[in-house]
Amino acid sequence: MKELLSFLQTRCQGDLLPWQAQAEAARVFGVSPARIEAIALENSLLPARYQRNRTIISCQDQLRLFSSRVAVIGCGGLGGYVLEELARLGVGELVAVDPDVFEEHNLNRQLLSSPASLGMKKTAAALERVSLINPAVTLVSAGVAFGRENGSELLRDCTLAVDCLDSIEARMELGMVCNDLGIPLVHGAIAGWFGHVATQFPGEKTLECIYCRHSGGKGVEKQLGNPSFTPAVVASLEVAEVCKVLLGKGSALRGRILSVDLLEMDFVETTL
C-alpha cells in the first residue's frame, strides 16, 4: 500500500493524478483501476478526469460518489444517458437492469444503441460503454426484468435507485421495493416533448401519488413517442438529483415534481 501510494504521489501534477499514471499503477501492482482510484481519493489525490468537478464537488465528495452503488432500472432512452453521466461523474459502482435487446426503433434516441448493436442486450452494451469511458467504474449487468419478486436482490447493497422504466406498473413495484429497502429513488418519465422528475425518500409514497389515477398500460409515451432530446434532458435532471442526494447537497425534488415542456420551454414545479 505504501509503495503504491508513493508511486501515485510521484506521478501527480500537484494533487491531480493523470489517467496514464492510474493505468500504469494498475499494471505494475496488478490491481484494478477501481482500487487505484479508491487509494488515490482516500489520500486526497484527485484523478485528473474530475478536475472540472472540483469547484462544486470536493475530493471528499468525489470519494463519496466513488463509494456509492447506484442501480439504474431500464437501459433505454433515459437509462443510457443516466449510465453515461453517472460513470463520467465518478459513481463507483453501477447496477444496470434491463431484459431487452436493441431494436431499430431505439436508434433515434437511445445513447447506447447503434446499427451495429441491433439485437444486442442493452445491459451488455452498457457494460461495454462504461468500461470504455471510465474503467475505474464497476458495472454489474443484470439482463432481467425488474419486479417485486427479484427487486430486493437486484438492489442489494445499493445506495440509491434511478427509475428509467417505461412501465408504470414496474415503476410502482420499484417504488415499493425501494421503500422496503429504505433507499431513495429518483424517478423520471418522458413522452414526446414532455417529461417529469421527482425524488422519493424512504417511507414516502411519491410514485403512488403521481400515478394514483393510472388505469393500466404504458401511459402517454406509447402515443407520443420520444425524440432524441427529451430523454437527454430528463436523464440529466435525474443525474443532478442523484448527485445531490448522494452528497447531501442542495434541495432535492422531495414532495414535489418538476414537469418539463420542451415545446414551450416551460419548467413547472408542483407540490405533491
Automatic annotation (TrEMBL):
It comes from the Bacteria. Residues 50-268 form the THIF-type NAD/FAD binding fold domain. Transmembrane segments: none annotated. InterPro entries: ThiF/MoeB/HesA, ThiF_NAD_FAD-bd, Ubiquitin-activating_enz. Pfam families: ThiF. This is Molybdopterin biosynthesis protein MoeB. The gene is chlN.
